[in-house]
Specification:
heterodimer, A: 17% strand, B: alpha/beta, 7 strands, globular, binds iron/sulfur cluster
Chain lengths: 467, 213
């Protein structure tokens, strides 16, 4: 058989029908259902009096709209409350398992999927959420879909899809001190642009990737969509298998052995040909910070806000002017001179235990600047419990951070956590779009240690000086 | 779904790159449970901003065609981004490129996304800026200008059929491919047993937490 890429192998094993002309009917093994993208999908299903074909293929959880100050507080009635209630009802009506907000299995879809072992190598996994690419860290094809496509999954377990082209992103050179995988993906997006990956499934390979933990691989794959790609994927290896072994929904006993046998083939063949290859050296990378309103507006912390007048074409000039006006930044300003009002550590990009540890390491023995309001929001209840077991919450709390319950929180202005007009935030999330963290809010994307450093000094800071 | 045959209208010029889904439909409105009547939230920040917004400015307030730059609809998977512009009466978006999920979502909602570049795109941009009516004919895959000039655009045959007939894709899959899905599932069950999770296991996991938390 001809040499194949990992993406091709998984794709081909899920083709139910080939319509010719490149369109396939693709089987989907797993579907994560959240409160925001599902109500209309369920409504369409109910309207046509259709059933959920395989209830066991879905897990429902509310993450976007949930408050992160919970404890004994009641969830105040309103739109967010109704949306969560609607998810519960829909799940119950269709026999889908729902992970309640106050339980130990709750969390952001892209954090709990892997935690539960719902995400597995070799499967096709979807969710009505663009950051579904996160799960590709486990060597599966995972991508975000729209609400209509969610209806198709409920009713048919399939999607009409065209195969993507493939791009291998070779990351070589390892990570210098103070630099994380978040800096790598931000720098990569700055280099190839937010349109750079459109039409491609990205496979991340190379020595830097092999050395990454599973959490870091998830961060890497998570932001594939910011490079324009619906799919990011890393070939599974011993780290992947060790992570999954014993997870509640991972196969066990004989099934685990079968799975391991199947997974042993999950890599791109040595002579597989990719439609495009890029190599990116990570050895000399500095911590990265976004300064504009799209993730490609990113530079090293040692850099400066660019000058729109230097742009060659009119379109980029005016785009840049608009971005800087929105961000309230003057050309030439040193990134390190930008003062922040808020700090957010969390999200499906950087809300895992290892992210909290990295931030806590910077915060330990230090205090959040008086001018800054900072929150730490674990990506899941399990992350929160594990962090508390290590005492990380005490580090955050004594530094002056708030320590919240799991949810999407300030990554998306859909719950109580949001920026107000003009507020500037050092954020570990993934999107710095206008209004993303609240109307008129200004987002600077960065790694957890960088966000912690900004919290301490009250301005964007090169964390390497604090380590 | 409303059939898409021809659309004739002025084209509203929103000539910027990377108009993202948060600009098209800000996240806070995602809390609404319905998909009808979302047009009033489209481009909310822009429409309530200091400068007049093109879709509120005659003659573009009745435009059925939107012309924009690269990577339109980049960002989130929210189908609201399509519902909201469709509710404003937009049936066709012409761009240099699209966010992929947005692009796929268009076809589920009777909205035709057209990718153009080079001279063709320049001609469309000019027509938009001078408020010249253009006519989109999906069957012929053409855009006609008042000068009589005509340009062609590409579209996948299946997606074209979906739009032309206003088809319900789910119904189509169930009717045409139900057997193939069943056969696939039977094989999957036999050969890839490790992939299946029992529904009981899932529910037990969901309930377990009631005891713990
Ligand atoms: S944390 Fe942010 S990016 Fe991730 S799923 Fe939630 S809203 Fe989306």
């Amino acid at each position: 058989m001809a040499a194949q890429t990992l993406y091709d192998k998984i794709w081909d094993s899920h083709v139910v029908a080939d319509h010719g002309n490149g369109e396939h009917l693709l089987y989907v093994d797993r579907h994560l259902v959240q409160e925001v993208s599902s109500p209309q999908a369920f409504a369409a299903l109910d309207q046509d009096e259709r059933k959920v074909r395989c209830p066991e293929a879905h897990i429902a959880v509310a993450d976007h709209a949930v408050p992160t100050l919970r404890g004994d507080r009641p969830f105040v009635e309103g739109l967010a409350f109704s949306q969560v209630e609607r998810l519960k009802e829909n799940a119950a009506n269709h026999g889908i398992a729902y992970m309640p907000m106050d339980g130990e299995r709750h969390g952001i879809v892209h954090v709990i999927g892997p935690e539960l072992g719902f995400t597995l190598p070799g499967v096709v996994l979807v969710c009505g959420d663009s950051h579904t690419c996160t799960h590709g860290a486990f060597g599966c094809i995972a991508f975000g879909i729209g609400a209509s496509e969610c209806t198709s999954i409920f009713a048919t377990q399939t999607l009409r899809q065209r195969k993507q082209k493939t791009m291998r992103v070779n990351l070589e050179g390892g990570l210098p001190n103070g630099v994380t995988v978040k800096d790598v993906i931000l720098a990569l997006i700055a280099e190839i642009g937010t349109g750079g990956g459109v039409g491609y499934a990205l496979e991340y390979a190379g020595s830097t990737v092999r050395d990454l933990s599973m959490a870091a691989r998830m961060t890497l794959c998570n932001m594939s969509i910011e490079a324009g790609s619906r799919v990011g994927i890393v070939a599974p290896d011993d780290k992947t298998f060790a992570f999954l072994d014993g997870r509640p929904l991972a196969p066990s006993g004989e099934a685990w052995k079968q799975a391991m046998a199947a997974w042993s083939d999950l890599h791109s063949d040595a002579d597989a040909v990719f439609d495009r290859e890029v190599t990116f050296n990570t050895a000399d990378l500095a911590p990265q910070v976004s300064w504009g309103t799209t993730p490609e507006h990113t530079c090293a912390v040692t850099g400066q806000v660019p000058d729109p007048e230097r742009e060659a074409d009119q379109n980029s000039k005016s785009r840049l002017r608009k971005s800087l006006a929105y961000m309230g930044l003057e050309p030439g300003t040193a990134i390190r001179d930008i003062a922040v009002d808020r700090v957010f550590v969390g999200s499906c990009t950087n809300g895992r235990l290892e992210d909290l540890r990295a931030a806590a390491q910077v915060l330990s023995g230090r205090k959040v600047a008086d001018s800054v309001k900072a929150i730490a929001v674990p990506g899941s209840a399990a992350v929160k419990i594990a962090a508390e077991r290590e005492g990380l919450h005490e580090i955050f709390l004594s530094a002056g951070f708030e320590w919240r319950d799991a949810g999407c929180s300030m990554c998306v202005a859909m719950n109580d956590d949001r920026l107000t007009e003009g507020e500037r935030c050092a954020s570990t999330s993934n999107r710095n779009f206008e209004g993303r963290q609240g109307k008129g809010g200004r987002t600077h994307l960065m790694s957890p240690p960088m966000a912690a450093a900004a919290a301490v000094t009250g301005k964007i800071t090169d964390v390497r000086e604090l380590l | 779904m409303e059939k898409f045959i021809t659309v004739k209208s002025v084209a509203a010029p929103l000539l910027e790159n990377a108009i993202d889904t948060d600009v098209i439909f800000p996240a806070r409105f995602l809390l609404l449970l319905d998909r009808e009547g979302l047009g009033r939230y489209a481009f909310s920040e822009r429409r309530n901003g200091p400068e007049p917004f093109v879709l509120d400015t005659p003659p573009y307030d009745t435009a059925k065609i939107l012309v924009t730059g690269e990577n339109f609809g980049t960002g989130s998977s929210r189908e609201q981004a399509v519902w909201t512009i469709a509710d404003l009466g937009i049936r066709c978006v012409i761009a240099r490129s699209f966010g992929e999920i947005f692009f796929a979502n268009c076809f589920k909602n009777g909205v035709l996304p057209i990718r153009l570049g080079g001279d063709d795109m320049a001609a469309v941009e000019k027509a938009a800026e001078t408020a010249e009516e253009i006519a989109i004919d999906l069957e012929a895959q053409s855009i006609r200008f008042s000068s009589g000039r005509e340009i062609r655009f590409d579209i996948e045959p299946n997606l074209k059929r979906l739009l032309l007939l206003g088809l319900d894709e789910v119904g189509m899959i169930l009717a045409e491919e139900g057997d193939a899905i069943e056969a696939f599932e039977a094989r999957r069950k036999a050969e890839l047993a490790w992939m299946s999770i029992g529904i009981d296991k899932l529910h037990a996991l969901a309930e377990e937490q009631d005891n713990n938390g």
